[in-house]
Design brief:
With about 280 residues, this protein is an alpha/beta fold. It has a single domain, classed as 3-Layer(aba) Sandwich (Rossmann fold). It contains ten helices and 13 strands. It binds zinc ion.
Amino acid sequence: MQPAQGEHHVQVECVVCGSESDNPYWDCGEYSFGRCGRCGHIYQNPQPSFADLEARYSDEYFSYELDNDENFFSLMVKGLSDISFEQRVASLAPRSFLDIGCATGMLPAYFATQGFTAEGVELCEPAARYGRELRGVPIFNGTLEQAAFPDASFGVVHASHLIEHLRDPSAFLRECRRVIASSGYLVLVTPDTSGLQARLFGARWRSAIADHLHLFSRRNLARLLAECGFIVEEQRSWGGLAAGIAPDFIKRPLDTAAKRWNFGDVMLVLARPAPF
Ligand SMILES: [Zn+2]
């Protein structure tokens, strides 16, 4: 979504290191990204207020989610299979799965067929309603913080392409830590600025879009996770070139190479709670 007219913007400090000094980095026209002078984190500054962001995730966003439902689902399942997720969680307790930013709830619906108690959280109201009514998945409409789940409720918390949309990823991760059982897992998927593409395309990179407020490098995401009570168990990346920008005979081998040598522009991070 493009920024709407009349949004209110606020200055923020770096979520990774707390520094207030960022330098202009990518100018994307109606919005821009700065780069932290201390830790190198790339983020929009100023950022839209939460109310303005919430208004973006309405009917238009719902149609986008619905159109891409199957595609996003198969990418998520593929990502999880690349890290042998089902084997890792074979004896997990509690067998409960929470998908944050679950859109129409396809992933929790799938985990419900795999012996999990599965539910979702989704800010976009029509998407949450669709998932509840058509897929029978319990989906809370709002943010994770608003859902106020009891401590240690979930064996797995999964959030794909979510953290980069948030105003405060640190508060989000701390809340994830609180609701995950001590033996549980956190799975995050988000764009990776350490990959080749961010450097190659800059402001024209496919992830430098208006809805992405934070773009993490692997190192900075690991640092933030550690501060919020997690230990990173595995980080993977994939994604060579965006669909449509190169012919298939170039895109395919580059995608394969990006995955094999870990230089893609999307990363998956598997983390576990550090002891309190
Ligand atoms: Zn910083």
